[in-house]
């Protein structure tokens, strides 16, 4: 599994715009998508996208508007994963905002089940969480 993110941050008067383009390769299934969020007030939030169904953004605050572009649907892989953008913005209304932005990826691979001598054995799963970046502005 490979996940990369390119990001941009822009301040425009009384708002902060955060853009992240995510490139992923999950067991040979490749996609990319761009998540854009606009912040018009001081807020701390998390915006997450499912890596295998990158068609919508789950946002933890009503004070933020986010959208997604270029997402492609899943191929039914036995993998779960999401990429989340974390933003903590202060002094937005002043035109000189401060804070930080970061991205983190979390994944889980299920190894399935097997039948052996009439018994079903769950082969379990494995999870990973990795911070892609965190910057102050």
- Uncertain stretches of 5 or more adjacent residues: none
Count of helix runs: 0
Order of helices and strands: EEEEEEEEEEE
Query: In whole angstroms, how far apart are the ends?
Result: 30 Å
Q: Can you give the mean pLDDT?
A: 83
- Radius of gyration, taken over Cα atoms and rounded to an integer in Å: 18 Å
Shape: elongated
The percentage helix is: under 10%
Given the helix and strand composition, which structural class is it?
mainly beta
Neighbour order of strands in the largest sheet: 5-4-7-8-11
| Strand proportion | over 45%
Largest sheet: 5 strands, antiparallel
Q: Total number of β-strand segments?
A: 11
Plain-language structure description:
The chain is mainly β. The chain has no helices and 11 strands. It has a 5-stranded antiparallel beta sheet, with no helix packed on it. It starts with a strand and ends with a strand.
Brief account:
The protein is mainly β and 137 residues long.
Which tags fit this structure?
mainly beta; about 140 residues; 4-stranded antiparallel sheet; elongated; 11 strands
Topology:
Blueprint: E1 2-12, E2 15-26, E3 29-39, E4 43-50, E5 58-59, E6 64-69, E7 79-90, E8 98-110, E9 113-116, E10 119-122, E11 125-136
Antiparallel strand pairs: 1-2, 2-3, 3-6, 4-5, 4-7, 7-8, 8-11, 9-10
């Amino acid at each position: 599994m490979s996940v990369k993110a390119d990001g941009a941050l822009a301040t425009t008067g009384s708002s902060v715009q955060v853009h992240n383009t995510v490139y992923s390769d999950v067991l040979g299934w490749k996609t990319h998508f761009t998540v854009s969020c606009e912040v018009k007030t001081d807020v701390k939030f998390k915006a997450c996208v499912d890596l295998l169904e990158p068609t919508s953004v789950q946002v933890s605050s009503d004070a933020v508007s986010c959208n997604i572009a270029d997402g492609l649907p899943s191929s039914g892989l036995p993998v779960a994963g999401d990429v989340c953008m974390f933003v903590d913005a202060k002094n937005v209304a002043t035109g000189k905002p401060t804070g930080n932005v970061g991205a983190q990826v979390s994944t889980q691979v299920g190894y399935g089940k097997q039948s052996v001598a009439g018994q079903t054995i769950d082969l379990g799963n494995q999870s990973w969480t990795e911070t892609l970046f965190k910057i102050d502005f």
